[in-house]
Amino acid sequence: MANNRPDIVTIRFHRNSRNTRIIDGVCVIGSAQPCRNLLSVGLRLLPAARCLLRNEFRLVYRAQGLWVFKRNR
């Protein structure tokens, strides 16, 4: 039987003194593969976000300091 549960990735971040978005925290429900290695505290947000978007995730919510991505399986 197919698993119809979506993959959800929530990323909390802040901007550093160079105005770069830096990951503060990550919550993954399901799988974030193949982007899991980019989703670590202290890493830059944009490479992780680009990887998620290239791998069928959609940005479904964006607020100050919080982005949520979803991928239907």
The gross shape turns out to be elongated
Please, what is the average pLDDT?
Answer: 95
Number of helices: 1
User: What is the quaternary state of this protein?
Assistant: single chain
Stretches with pLDDT under 50, minimum 5 residues: none
Helical amount: 10-25%
* Number of E strands: 4
Strand order of the largest sheet: 2-1-4-3
Q: Describe the main β-sheet briefly.
A: 4 strands, antiparallel
* Radius of gyration over C-alpha positions, nearest whole angstrom: 12 Å
Approximate strand percentage: 35-45%
Structural class per helix/strand content? mainly beta
Question: What's the helix-strand series?
Answer: EEHEE
Distance between the termini: 13 Å
Could you characterize the architecture of this molecule?
With 73 residues, this protein is mainly beta. It has one helix spanning 45-54; strands at 7-15, 21-29, 58-63, 66-71. A four-stranded antiparallel beta sheet has the order 2-1-4-3, covered by helices on one side. It starts with 6 loop residues before the first strand and ends with a strand. The model has no long low-confidence stretch (mean pLDDT 95).
Summarize the structure.
The chain is built from one helix and four strands, in the order ββαββ.
Give a topology summary:
Blueprint: E1 7-15, E2 21-29, H1 45-54, E3 58-63, E4 66-71
Antiparallel strand pairs: 1-2, 1-4, 3-4
